[in-house]
Amino acid sequence: MSARFEEIDWRPTAMGEISLRRRRDPLSGDDVYEVKLGDEYLMSSLFTTGEVELARLGLAGLSEGPLDVAVGGLGLGYTARAALDDPRVRSLVVVDTLAEVIDWHRRGLVPLGAGLASDPRCRLVRGDFFTMVTGGAGTAGPPSADGAVPRGLDPETPGRRFHAVLLDVDHSPRHVLHPDHAVLYTRAGLTALAELLRPGGVFALWSNDPPDDEFGAVLAEVFTDTAAHVVDFDNPLQGGTAANTVYVARRRDG
Fold it and tell me: Phi-psi category of 22—alpha, beta or left, where left has phi over 0 and alpha has psi -120 to 50?
């Protein structure tokens, strides 16, 4: 039997101290993996329904494959794994800003890591998703004064477009992990993201907050067929159920 608690890895990063921990759940006896940034919980293997539904709902409305998909935010790998479980997916690019998180997967320190790292369809890319979409310099769209330009989500293929882009990094469009992320959730940022989608492609976003009418209105200015899906799941820590939101939107020229 595993120990009750173990800090598997801890490292200082540009975003703060990040740690990977494993503890034994006293109710089920199962191992629970958790990622913390400073004192803030980013991810727990106890709550993965929203991450899985992000991939399922994001890909559900697409036609038959093959599909090329990009994921922003690796975390514990549940969104990436759910995408690869869809037989239509031909390729998957997963972008994460923290090399440490990618390293956990490549070293097999998290349960899904070895399977993702060894899947020939999947490529783990270190990069800032938000800068790769908007070009950095705090604004989206045209090149900035310092020459920053949108680079796309696949460094090996500049200008590559995807059938779906699935994003799970910030807590919500209103509660971002870094101030530079906020621009993505504006009309300019979403327009830049739409340019990375193939005609008819889908953008899906995970949020820990209830549906946000203001953000939904901005989303509808850029995309069509927009929807906010409430995803309920059991919460054994507090009892009863909890909920996430998954936004799904289609590129207008589909």
Answer: beta
List of residues 6+ apart from 209 with CB closer than 8 A = 171, 172, 173, 174, 175, 245
Cβ-contact 192, 141 below 8 angstroms: yes
> Rounded to whole angstroms, how far apart are CA atoms 33 and 46?
8
Could you tell me which CATH class the domain 47-251 is placed in? alpha beta
pTM of the shown model: 0.90
d(CA 77, CA 63): 24
Written as six digits, the tokens of 71 are 């994921």
Nearest to 208 by CA among 250, 247, 170, 171: 171
State the 10-residue block means of pLDDT for the chain, 254 residues long.
Answer: 80 88 84 89 88 97 92 97 97 96 96 96 96 69 43 89 97 94 97 96 97 97 97 75 94 76
Quote the pLDDT of residue 240. 78
CA 221 → CA 145, 188, 201, 232, 250, distances in Å? 27, 10, 16, 27, 11
Q: How far is CA 12 from CA 2, 15, 19, 80, 98, in A?
A: 26, 8, 9, 25, 11
Q: How many CB atoms lie within 10 A of CB 218?
A: 17
Packed helices 187-194 and 213-222: angle between N→C axes, nearest 10 degrees: 50
Question: Which helix H or strand E contains 9, and what residues bound it?
Answer: strand 5-13
What pLDDT sits at residue 141?
A: 39
CB of 248 closer than 8 Å to CB of 58? yes
Domain extents for the chain? 47-251
Beta strands in 67-161 (DSSP E): 67-72, 89-96, 122-126
